[in-house]
Design a protein that fits this description.
Layout: H1 6-55, H2 78-122, H3 141-147, E1 153-156, H4 163-166, E2 174-178, H5 183-186, H6 190-197, E3 204-209, E4 215-220, E5 234-237
Antiparallel strand pairs: 1-2, 1-5, 2-3, 3-4
Helix pairs in contact: 1-2
Pfam families: Nas2_N
Signal peptide: 1-23
InterPro entries: Nas2_N, PDZ_sf, PSMD9
Length: 238
Protein backbone atom coordinates (compact mmCIF):
# COMPACT_ATOMS: atom_id res chain seq x y z
CA UNK A 1 0.00 0.00 0.00
CA UNK A 2 1.30 3.41 -0.94
CA UNK A 3 1.05 6.34 1.41
CA UNK A 4 -0.15 9.62 -0.12
CA UNK A 5 0.72 12.69 1.84
CA UNK A 6 -2.18 14.95 2.90
CA UNK A 7 -0.09 17.76 1.44
CA UNK A 8 -0.78 16.32 -2.02
CA UNK A 9 -4.54 16.62 -1.57
CA UNK A 10 -4.14 20.07 -0.06
CA UNK A 11 -2.08 21.20 -3.07
CA UNK A 12 -4.66 19.84 -5.51
CA UNK A 13 -7.43 21.62 -3.64
CA UNK A 14 -5.53 24.91 -3.65
CA UNK A 15 -4.82 24.60 -7.37
CA UNK A 16 -8.47 23.87 -8.16
CA UNK A 17 -9.62 26.81 -6.07
CA UNK A 18 -7.08 29.03 -7.80
CA UNK A 19 -8.50 28.05 -11.18
CA UNK A 20 -12.00 28.95 -9.98
CA UNK A 21 -10.85 32.32 -8.67
CA UNK A 22 -8.97 33.07 -11.89
CA UNK A 23 -12.01 32.17 -13.96
CA UNK A 24 -14.23 34.42 -11.87
CA UNK A 25 -11.75 37.28 -12.16
CA UNK A 26 -11.64 36.84 -15.94
CA UNK A 27 -15.44 37.08 -16.12
CA UNK A 28 -15.44 40.15 -13.87
CA UNK A 29 -12.87 41.89 -16.05
CA UNK A 30 -14.79 41.00 -19.20
CA UNK A 31 -17.95 42.51 -17.77
CA UNK A 32 -16.11 45.66 -16.73
CA UNK A 33 -14.51 46.04 -20.16
CA UNK A 34 -17.84 45.71 -21.92
CA UNK A 35 -19.25 48.38 -19.59
CA UNK A 36 -16.27 50.63 -20.31
CA UNK A 37 -16.71 50.03 -24.03
CA UNK A 38 -20.34 51.15 -23.76
CA UNK A 39 -19.21 54.30 -21.93
CA UNK A 40 -16.57 54.89 -24.60
CA UNK A 41 -19.17 54.63 -27.36
CA UNK A 42 -21.36 57.10 -25.48
CA UNK A 43 -18.45 59.56 -25.24
CA UNK A 44 -17.68 59.21 -28.94
CA UNK A 45 -21.33 59.79 -29.80
CA UNK A 46 -21.46 62.99 -27.73
CA UNK A 47 -18.18 64.22 -29.23
CA UNK A 48 -19.41 63.57 -32.78
CA UNK A 49 -22.67 65.38 -32.09
CA UNK A 50 -20.84 68.41 -30.72
CA UNK A 51 -18.44 68.45 -33.67
CA UNK A 52 -21.28 68.16 -36.17
CA UNK A 53 -23.13 71.06 -34.58
CA UNK A 54 -20.05 73.27 -34.38
CA UNK A 55 -19.10 72.45 -37.97
CA UNK A 56 -22.37 74.08 -39.04
CA UNK A 57 -21.56 77.36 -37.28
CA UNK A 58 -19.28 80.19 -38.46
CA UNK A 59 -16.98 79.73 -35.46
CA UNK A 60 -16.51 75.97 -35.33
CA UNK A 61 -14.64 74.44 -32.40
CA UNK A 62 -11.93 77.09 -31.96
CA UNK A 63 -13.15 80.27 -33.67
CA UNK A 64 -13.44 83.62 -31.85
CA UNK A 65 -16.80 84.46 -30.30
CA UNK A 66 -16.37 88.22 -30.66
CA UNK A 67 -16.25 90.28 -33.82
CA UNK A 68 -13.48 92.62 -34.98
CA UNK A 69 -14.91 95.43 -32.86
CA UNK A 70 -14.88 93.33 -29.70
CA UNK A 71 -18.63 92.71 -29.51
CA UNK A 72 -20.28 89.27 -29.22
CA UNK A 73 -20.86 87.79 -32.63
CA UNK A 74 -24.40 88.06 -33.93
CA UNK A 75 -24.18 85.41 -36.64
CA UNK A 76 -24.55 82.37 -34.36
CA UNK A 77 -26.11 81.20 -31.09
CA UNK A 78 -23.25 81.88 -28.69
CA UNK A 79 -24.88 80.03 -25.80
CA UNK A 80 -25.33 76.90 -27.92
CA UNK A 81 -21.77 77.18 -29.23
CA UNK A 82 -20.34 77.46 -25.72
CA UNK A 83 -22.45 74.51 -24.57
CA UNK A 84 -21.29 72.38 -27.50
CA UNK A 85 -17.65 73.31 -26.91
CA UNK A 86 -17.94 72.53 -23.22
CA UNK A 87 -19.58 69.21 -24.00
CA UNK A 88 -16.83 68.39 -26.49
CA UNK A 89 -14.07 69.21 -24.00
CA UNK A 90 -15.66 67.36 -21.07
CA UNK A 91 -16.45 64.24 -23.06
CA UNK A 92 -12.97 64.26 -24.61
CA UNK A 93 -11.49 64.24 -21.10
CA UNK A 94 -13.89 61.45 -20.11
CA UNK A 95 -12.85 59.49 -23.19
CA UNK A 96 -9.18 59.79 -22.30
CA UNK A 97 -9.81 58.53 -18.75
CA UNK A 98 -11.96 55.64 -20.00
CA UNK A 99 -9.41 54.52 -22.58
CA UNK A 100 -6.60 54.63 -20.02
CA UNK A 101 -8.69 52.48 -17.67
CA UNK A 102 -9.57 50.11 -20.51
CA UNK A 103 -5.91 49.69 -21.40
CA UNK A 104 -5.01 48.83 -17.80
CA UNK A 105 -7.86 46.35 -17.49
CA UNK A 106 -7.05 44.84 -20.90
CA UNK A 107 -3.50 44.12 -19.80
CA UNK A 108 -4.75 42.50 -16.59
CA UNK A 109 -7.28 40.43 -18.50
CA UNK A 110 -4.77 39.28 -21.10
CA UNK A 111 -2.36 38.17 -18.38
CA UNK A 112 -5.12 36.16 -16.70
CA UNK A 113 -6.37 34.76 -20.01
CA UNK A 114 -2.90 33.47 -20.84
CA UNK A 115 -2.77 31.65 -17.50
CA UNK A 116 -6.24 30.17 -17.94
CA UNK A 117 -5.43 29.09 -21.50
CA UNK A 118 -2.26 27.36 -20.29
CA UNK A 119 -4.31 25.43 -17.75
CA UNK A 120 -6.85 24.44 -20.39
CA UNK A 121 -4.10 23.21 -22.70
CA UNK A 122 -2.77 20.86 -20.02
CA UNK A 123 -6.15 19.75 -18.68
CA UNK A 124 -7.64 16.35 -19.40
CA UNK A 125 -9.91 16.14 -22.51
CA UNK A 126 -13.36 17.46 -21.74
CA UNK A 127 -16.32 15.12 -21.52
CA UNK A 128 -19.34 15.96 -23.70
CA UNK A 129 -21.24 17.35 -20.72
CA UNK A 130 -18.35 19.23 -19.14
CA UNK A 131 -16.39 22.14 -20.58
CA UNK A 132 -15.46 24.64 -17.95
CA UNK A 133 -12.32 26.16 -16.57
CA UNK A 134 -13.20 24.33 -13.37
CA UNK A 135 -14.09 20.71 -14.19
CA UNK A 136 -16.13 20.41 -10.99
CA UNK A 137 -18.74 22.85 -12.28
CA UNK A 138 -21.42 21.96 -14.87
CA UNK A 139 -21.50 23.90 -18.10
CA UNK A 140 -23.79 26.89 -18.35
CA UNK A 141 -26.32 27.30 -21.13
CA UNK A 142 -24.00 29.28 -23.39
CA UNK A 143 -21.12 26.85 -23.04
CA UNK A 144 -23.50 23.94 -23.63
CA UNK A 145 -24.59 25.58 -26.88
CA UNK A 146 -20.97 26.02 -27.97
CA UNK A 147 -20.27 22.33 -27.41
CA UNK A 148 -22.90 21.44 -29.99
CA UNK A 149 -21.63 23.85 -32.65
CA UNK A 150 -19.44 22.79 -35.54
CA UNK A 151 -16.04 24.52 -35.82
CA UNK A 152 -15.75 26.47 -39.06
CA UNK A 153 -12.30 28.08 -38.85
CA UNK A 154 -8.84 26.98 -37.81
CA UNK A 155 -6.49 29.50 -36.21
CA UNK A 156 -3.04 29.57 -37.79
CA UNK A 157 0.12 31.64 -37.58
CA UNK A 158 -0.53 33.28 -34.20
CA UNK A 159 2.25 35.81 -33.70
CA UNK A 160 3.86 35.99 -30.28
CA UNK A 161 2.86 39.06 -28.24
CA UNK A 162 0.03 39.87 -30.64
CA UNK A 163 -3.52 40.58 -29.39
CA UNK A 164 -4.50 37.03 -30.38
CA UNK A 165 -1.53 35.59 -28.48
CA UNK A 166 -2.22 37.75 -25.43
CA UNK A 167 -5.85 36.64 -25.53
CA UNK A 168 -4.80 32.98 -25.27
CA UNK A 169 -5.32 31.82 -28.87
CA UNK A 170 -2.81 29.38 -30.33
CA UNK A 171 -2.19 27.66 -33.65
CA UNK A 172 -4.55 24.76 -34.23
CA UNK A 173 -7.46 26.04 -32.16
CA UNK A 174 -10.75 25.61 -34.04
CA UNK A 175 -13.24 28.47 -33.88
CA UNK A 176 -16.87 27.58 -33.19
CA UNK A 177 -18.00 31.19 -32.77
CA UNK A 178 -16.35 34.57 -33.32
CA UNK A 179 -18.36 37.29 -31.61
CA UNK A 180 -21.84 36.26 -32.85
CA UNK A 181 -20.60 34.62 -36.06
CA UNK A 182 -20.70 30.84 -36.41
CA UNK A 183 -20.67 28.25 -39.19
CA UNK A 184 -24.31 28.89 -40.09
CA UNK A 185 -24.19 32.68 -40.20
CA UNK A 186 -20.78 33.02 -41.85
CA UNK A 187 -21.14 30.48 -44.67
CA UNK A 188 -18.69 31.34 -47.47
CA UNK A 189 -18.40 35.01 -46.51
CA UNK A 190 -16.60 34.43 -43.22
CA UNK A 191 -13.77 36.85 -44.05
CA UNK A 192 -16.05 39.84 -44.52
CA UNK A 193 -18.17 38.71 -41.57
CA UNK A 194 -15.15 38.72 -39.25
CA UNK A 195 -13.99 42.08 -40.57
CA UNK A 196 -17.40 43.59 -39.86
CA UNK A 197 -17.16 42.84 -36.12
CA UNK A 198 -13.43 43.44 -35.63
CA UNK A 199 -12.58 47.02 -34.71
CA UNK A 200 -9.71 48.58 -32.82
CA UNK A 201 -10.18 48.47 -29.03
CA UNK A 202 -13.59 46.78 -29.39
CA UNK A 203 -13.57 43.57 -27.27
CA UNK A 204 -14.40 40.31 -29.05
CA UNK A 205 -15.19 36.93 -27.51
CA UNK A 206 -13.96 33.91 -29.45
CA UNK A 207 -15.22 30.44 -28.61
CA UNK A 208 -12.75 27.81 -29.75
CA UNK A 209 -12.04 24.11 -29.42
CA UNK A 210 -8.55 23.43 -28.11
CA UNK A 211 -6.41 20.44 -29.16
CA UNK A 212 -7.39 18.53 -26.00
CA UNK A 213 -11.08 18.71 -26.99
CA UNK A 214 -12.21 21.39 -24.55
CA UNK A 215 -14.36 24.29 -25.70
CA UNK A 216 -13.39 27.60 -24.12
CA UNK A 217 -14.03 31.30 -24.56
CA UNK A 218 -11.14 33.66 -25.25
CA UNK A 219 -11.38 37.41 -24.82
CA UNK A 220 -9.57 39.47 -27.47
CA UNK A 221 -9.01 43.19 -27.75
CA UNK A 222 -8.07 44.04 -31.36
CA UNK A 223 -5.47 46.79 -31.38
CA UNK A 224 -2.47 48.20 -33.16
CA UNK A 225 0.71 46.35 -32.23
CA UNK A 226 4.21 45.93 -33.66
CA UNK A 227 3.01 43.47 -36.30
CA UNK A 228 0.38 43.54 -39.03
CA UNK A 229 -3.37 43.71 -38.50
CA UNK A 230 -5.37 44.14 -35.32
CA UNK A 231 -5.22 40.49 -34.19
CA UNK A 232 -1.88 39.04 -35.21
CA UNK A 233 -3.19 35.71 -36.45
CA UNK A 234 -4.77 34.15 -39.53
CA UNK A 235 -7.77 31.91 -40.12
CA UNK A 236 -8.44 29.14 -42.59
CA UNK A 237 -11.78 27.55 -43.38
CA UNK A 238 -12.47 24.01 -42.24
Amino acid sequence: MYFVSPLFFFSCSVFANLRIVMGEEVERLKKKLFELQAERESCLKDIREAEEYLAGTPVGLRGRLIDEEGFPRADCDLYAVRSARNKHNCRSNDLKDIEETMYTEMMRLQDLTRDVAAQQMTAAPAKPSIATRDDSRPVNAEREAMLSKRPFLRIVDVKMNSPAWDGGLRDGFEVVQYDDIDSESAAENWRSALQSVTAENAPVTVWARTPNGAVADFFLVPRQWEGNGLLGCSFEAL
